[in-house]
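# step 3/5: fold
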Amino acid sequence: MEFIEEKIDIREYLRVIMKRRWIIIAISSLIFVAVVIHAFTATPIFEASTRIIIDKENPNVVSIQEVMAVDASGTDYYQTQYKIIESRSVARSVIKRLDLDKSEEFFPKPDDNFISVMMGSVKDGLKSAIVAVTSLFVTGRKKNDEAEEKEESNNSLVSSFLSRLKIDPIRNSRLVDIKYQAKDPVIAAKIVNTISDAYIDQNLETKLAAIQNAVKWLHSRIEEERKKVETAEQSLLRYKEQQGIITDFSSNTENITAQKLAQLNQQVVDAESLRVEAETRYKQAKALEGNPDMLDSIPQVLNNELIRQIKTMEVELFKKMSEFSKKYGSNHPQMVAIQSELNTLQARKAQEINRVINSLNNEYKVALAKENSFKAALYGQKRESLSLNQKAIEYTVLQREAQSAKEMYDLLIKRFKETSLTEDMKTGNVRIVDKAEVPKNPVKPRKGLNIIIGLIVGLGAGLGAAFFLEYLDNTIKLPEDIKRYLDIPYLGIIPIYLTNRNIANEGERALAPEMVTFHSPKSISSEAYRGIRTNILFSSADKEPQVVLVSSAGPQEGKTITSTNIAITMAQSGNKVVLIDCDLRRPKVHKLFGIKKDEGMTNLLVGNRKIDDVIFETKIPGLHVIPSGPIPPNPSEIIGSGRMKELLDKLRLDFNMIIIDSPPIAAVTDSSILAKSADGVVLVIRAGETAREIVRTGVEQLKSIGAHVLGAVLNGVDTANDSYYYYQYYYYYYGEDGETKKGARTKRKPEFLNRFSSNKEV
């Protein structure tokens, strides 16, 4: 879907300006004059300014910054300071210092002229009356009312004071300009200097109050922490006495305990190993005790010196026995002696072996006892270590609490000393750079600028009002409005014209002066009607419309005069024309032609008269008129009857053009009924008075019944006011004397002429 961009028409804007020029001139002049009067009568206002600097860092010489930590590097800090300068507390301080509650700057004395005295008397009288009436109903509140009134007065003074104050920070710096406006330049300078002093004093007082609060708080906390230190140290001392702790637990103590445990554990392992070896040797020897030959395999037996000597001796004896046995028998004394000696050695060897076994048993018992002893010592050391750890934990907790309490106490003591020292230092981060001087020239009013602004604002307000009124005007004013809003052809305009009431010709006097096409055939209005006639005749492509219905959306549009003048122009072009007054509710055609309405359309439609009885010839050649006749009680039924169609069919045979004047479309249905029988409908629209919605409703109503709308006529156009738009149509027009004249407006009206607006029915 293509969207057609509507172009801006400068001529349309100029037309609106010309049309509403008096509104523009009136509003612009009113605003401009008011601004000029104000500029030259307003009291001059002076502005004084002082410059201060707000440093980022607080220039303290001790570490109290931790107590009063302020982040002065961000914009929020400076915005806060600006608001403090504008605060009501600073304002009250300045008012109190300068006694501004008694200053004429804020409480001017009344004028001594008569009007001011009278107004003051009336005001005081009204106030006294209100107080008297109030006292009749409310008692016991006089003091409270006075206090409230005083408080309200003070609040009003503070608000008035702050309304003149301006804070102007200098960009990309820490400098701030404090400005104040007053009628008295001396007062302005005093106030702005006092504001800077009050702000600096308040800043110092705020910091001093914070320091004093910090000192008070530190003092109370120091006392609390001192009691905590005493309690913690007493608890630690009691625990040491209860547990018999002489020295503090340290890492060396833990290391010694660990070394002891490791040493005892190693000794237990070694003793257990020795016990296992001794037990093994003993059990092995005990198992071989009944087998002497196998006992020699035991290392302790094998390595025994005595047993080895006995075995050596036994070997010697066995050698001798072997030698003697070759010589002697077994019973030989030497053999017996050797055998006895062998037995003795064997007994001694067995005895020695038993001793070795007993020795192994003793070694086993000693190793077992040693092992048990080391295990008992290890168990005891473990228990002692666990007990020591528990004591160390409790001792460490108590010691840490005492130490922490002492550290907090020492820190508070340090802070207390620093804060007490800072309390005696009156330093701040705000300084005055330039004090205010008494201004010489006022800053208000700026007469030249105010006059220029007043001129611009007045012109803008006038133009705005003009275009706003034009926007609110939803009437049909221009031919473009007909095409844009109604979507029907435009047939022409009818300008507001002058009618000559003093007609000399007696024959012409019978016709109403509104028949301008007859009385002034060469006037601009007659030319307009002839143009409309031409557009009507060429409105249909197939053939010229023969029956033309003239109507309007609402009443007082000028349809009767328009239909009459169109009928006259049709007759003047050589056509045989009949004008029918079908407005059976408010007929007016008969008045324009000076004939009676006793017999007319209603007689024809009810059948008690013939056409020849009700048709009248006029003074205009070729023009005939059928008046309305008596007004019936049911016009719609009569017009909608079949006789109406038959009547039109008969008239078509006798006349070239049939012009029907009908009632408004929106008011009644008569026009809609007649439109079905007509070849076309001409709508008369009063320019600048008929709303678009009403006309659009009438057009839609006609289209809904299938009527052929030939177009619309824009009636009552003021070509003087809208000359910019219409000059191309009427720049040259025929004058009354038949000569071509150039002109746009008539500055002076002849006495014999009467201005006539064609939207009014006659």
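# step 4/5: annotate
Residues 299 and 371 are 24 Å apart (CA to CA).
# step 5/5: archive (pending)
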